[in-house]
Amino acid sequence: MLFRILRTIRPLLAAAVACGALWQAPAQALTAEQALAMADGDNASRVAAMADAVAHGDGQRTADFLQAMQDGEVQIAAGRAFIVRAGQGVDPVTGQPVAVPEGAEDVGTNNRIRREIGSALASLNLLVGDEATRLDAARAMLKGATPDRLPLLDKAMAQERSAAVKAELELARSAAQLGSEDPAQRIKAAAQLAQRATPATRLLLNERQAQETDEKVQLALQRAQAEVADKLAWGERLGVAFTGVSLGTILLLVALGLAITYGLMGVINMAHGELMMIGAYATYLVQGVFRSYLPEFFDWYLLAAVPAAFLASALVGAIMERGVLRFLYGRPLETLLATWGISLVLMQLVRSTFGAQNVAVENPVWMSGGLQVLPNLTLPWNRLVIIVFAFAVLAGVAYLIARTRMGLFVRGVTQNRPIASCMGVNTARVDTMAFALGSGIAGLAGCALSQVGNVGPDLGQSYIVDSFMVVVLGGVGQLAGTVYAALGLGLLNKFLEGWTGAVLAKIAVLVFIIAFIQKRPQGIFAMKGRSAE
User: Fold this and answer.
1) What is the secondary structure of 398-413 as a DSSP string?
2) Phi, psi of 369 (to 5 degrees)
3) Residues of the chain with pLDDT under 50
4) Which residues of 165-200 are buried (b: 16+ CB within 10 A; e: fewer)?
5) Which of 263, 205, 243 minimizes the C-alpha distance to 431?
6) Which residue blocks in 25-58 are alpha helix, DSSP H?
């Protein structure tokens, strides 16, 4: 009985084993003939060999060989192709070290072959790479997607488990269907692309519309473009707003120190921009120290550069006040001329020390890249950090002015210098400390600017006029007015740039400030107290 049962199920067991073997059978291995065909011959035959290897070969071996071709590490000798790295030959079929025959020649690649290699690698990475590699490959497949890539995309989608990668594959599949010969498929693809509003889909739709001849498909493409444009508009508006806030916080940092010195002593400090420049160069020097002596901590050099920039600029500001400005109080025009001369001296000193060319200040790794908020809106980390830094500096200055003994003296001298002197306040020391504080804040602004722009001898010249406009518009000596004026001017300038261009936007902002000061000479917030009368 048992023998009869075994004889009955034996065919079923054999079929199951055979199916299992077929299921687990590896893909056809890369052959020496395929490797040689990809490396040697005319362009058409090499491209055809790449397509065949991608479709039927061992994905990892084929990817390694194509990557070696892209890197110029493939040689041909004795009718075989070899991968040669650091003088050591590798068999592309087995991956084992082999001896390369004498007289081996390097494989040449032209622009077309390089493009095809890149496309083939992207196709293979869809199947054999890790999640990040597959995501990059799916995005690469979107460029130049054609109907002949649909089988590969379908295969990749069938085995993909990552939702992010699958979404990109669906987008690439829709882009490939835009080139279909069937108008209905093209209309369907346009509707699918409209659901994924990204700059890439807008570009694809524009390119297809320029080639399309079918009227129905043209209408579908126009509707899809309108839908994508509506969805992307919010990202563009938010991007302009973020850029305006970023510019406003930079103006806030630049003008904050000037608001203290100008509001306290009435000194028109034309060297304020050069104090920023000193802070930026102090950051550059700290970067050099970390690169030479503490390379393992290089990504944290900025934490040491912040106090260094503050102290360097504060020291120069204190020397300026004690050496020149204390003899010119009460004569604002003469302080303007004196500080303008000091600014020329400082610029020439920097040119003589560091050269006239800009110097490179690198972003730490943790400030590189950005935060993807919308498909067409990425917020750079360096800008976000500067915004947080600016408000942190503002909070520190506000606390110093409102809650400390030094702040009490500064407010007393600002509101009524003679009475403060009669009460025993050393006004000369307060002047020095306040000017050093304002100069140090300018150094912090220079440190921040080094992360978003060029650092050179003319750095401060780009911001000195804007900083005075912020101080005058906000109200002399008023921190709240400085904040409102800086952020308002930053947003206004960036929104106007989108309509009129950078030059006309600058002119319009200047006209607005002039008109506002004509109506309200005290600025947004007028100074209170007897000194305001």
Assistant:
1) HHHHHHSHHHHHHHHH
2) 80, -160
3) 1-27, 529-533
4) beebbbbbbbbbbbbbeeeebbbbbbebbbebbbeb
5) 263
6) 32-39, 43-56
**pLDDT score for 57:** 59
Q: Give exposure, 75-111, as e/b (b: 16+ Cβ within 10 Å).
A: bbeeebbbbbeeeebbbbbeeeeeebeeebeebebee
Q: What pLDDT, in 10s, does the model give residues 272-324? A: 999 999 999 999 999 999 999 999 999 999 999 999 999 999 999 999 999 99
Q: In the structure encoding, which two tokens stand for residue 128, read together? A: 């054999």
Pair of tokens at residue 114:
């390089």
Q: 427, 413 in Cβ contact below 8 A?
A: yes
| Residue 191 tokens, joined | 């509707």
CA distance 211 to 205: 10
Q: Report the alpha-carbon distance of residue 324 to residue 442 in Å, rounded.
A: 19
SS3 477: coil
The pLDDT tens digits for 96-106 are 888 888 888 88
CA distances from 126 to 76, 192, 301 (A): 29, 21, 39
C-alpha dihedral sign at 90, 94, 99, 102: negative
